[in-house]
Design goal:
- By secondary structure, this protein is mostly beta strands.
- About 10% of the residues lie in helices and about 35% in strands.
- The chain has a 5-stranded antiparallel β-sheet with strand order 3-2-1-4-5.
- A hairpin with a 5-residue loop joins β1 and β2.
């Protein structure tokens, strides 16, 4: 009821689906509030610590978040509700590497799923502006525990995004899956698999494609057909 109330007050200008943005700043210790910069370009939005789902201990500038629009009861101004951190801000060289950038190592608080397996799949949706989307797994029995068929992916978790081509729908990828502290499921340690399945060339691409039996048979079918 609260969210609907907020939407009505907000003039109904925002879509029903959850909004995305980044934390502009957040003072947990003294003020217990901060601001979010919404991805759609709308004005910075007030965020209270009490409206963040999960721990606020490490919430900081640059973190990607998902939220609903609500209204501050005292002022009637908009605020963020049910804020969930999707992706912690990417580590820089000066920061200690938290494990995000190494295949097989997982960030603190991330619980690896599917026995830490590397999973193959295809980019099903990707928004280049906000740098997030969804991956459809080859194995349809692998599903996010929270429901749905596809796995959320953020551009920061695509390890070869800096030096390879941009992430696009239809690209073949290999990835691991984790459940974060906020109980969200996402793909991490994502790498594009050049030459997988139908686009087999020569050389290293073909060898890479043959690393799994399914890919090898598809590769054979593609080159033979």
């Amino acid at each position: 009821a609260m969210a609907a109330h907020g939407a009505a007050h907000h003039g109904g200008g925002h879509p029903a689906q959850r909004a995305l943005g980044r934390v502009k700043w957040f003072d947990r210790d003294r003020k217990s509030y901060g601001f979010i910069t919404p991805a759609d370009g709308s004005p910075d939005l007030f965020m209270h610590a009490g409206d963040v789902l999960g721990s606020t201990k490490t919430l900081g500038p640059g973190d990607a978040v998902e939220f609903d629009y609500g209204v501050q009861p005292q002022s009637g101004r908009p605020k963020a509700l049910e804020v969930v951190r999707l992706v912690q801000h990417v580590v820089t060289d000066e920061d200690e590497d938290d494990g995000r950038t190494t295949i097989g190592k997982f960030a603190p608080g991330d619980e690896p799923l599917f026995d830490r397996a590397r999973v193959r799949g295809t980019i099903a949706r990707f928004d280049p502006t906000h740098r997030w989307g969804f991956i459809s797994p080859d194995d349809a029995t692998l599903k996010p525990p929270n429901g749905g068929d596809n796995f959320f992916v953020h551009g920061l978790d695509v390890l070869d995004a800096a030096d390879a081509a941009p992430v696009e729908v239809g690209q073949r990828v290999e990835f691991a899956v984790v459940r974060t502290r906020s109980r969200r499921c996402k793909a991490v340690q994502v790498v594009r698999v050049a030459g997988d399945v139908a686009t087999v060339g020569g050389g290293s691409g073909a060898r890479g494609a043959a690393s799994t039996p399914a890919a090898a048979s598809s590769a054979a079918a593609a080159s033979g057909g």
